């Protein structure tokens, strides 16, 4: 009887220990869903990098070409973070985009060099980034691994910005190929404005100085003339 009681107590203790250590384990090791998220976004990044290069080569408008360059830049950075995290968590990543992603780009390439290319590319990117944003939101809401969820939160603003650039299958980006790194735009613009203001102030000060000096000389001359008249 005592042996049965001891066995029951041991089973209970094991269950409690498992329930206690479960969440901590989930924080450090990626579950099936978390690992699948890393793999999916990695393939998405690879597809977007390739699509961005293709837009730079085959797009007809400067806006589409510039948007492609932005996608290459940002998704290369995002994928570097994904790859590093996957290596840390021992998650094996695919080496190429999915067959569906490859097929999508191949179909768009058939319109290369025409206005139809730009429209097809923008529509595809709008749909792709909409899906990616939904995937990120799902990971943020229900992901078990804290590190992967943190990476999803960090990537969300970038993906949302990309979606805004191509929303509705229309290019909303700048037509210029010149890009300003994130975080520097306001400072650069502020510096330019400050430089212009400084120049204006300096110029104004120089003019004011000249006027004051001229007025001083004129005042002195008038006093001397008046003094000479009094002596006469």
From TrEMBL:
Superkingdom of this protein's organism: Bacteria
Cleaved signal peptide residues: 1-26
Record has Signal as a keyword: yes
Matching Pfam families: DUF4142 (PF13628)
Record-annotated DUF4142 domain positions: 33-167
Residue stretches spanning the membrane: 200-220
Keywords associated with the record: Membrane, Signal, Transmembrane, Transmembrane helix
Protein name: DUF4142 domain-containing protein
Species of provenance: Streptomyces mashuensis
Lineage: Bacteria, Bacillati, Actinomycetota, Actinomycetes, Kitasatosporales
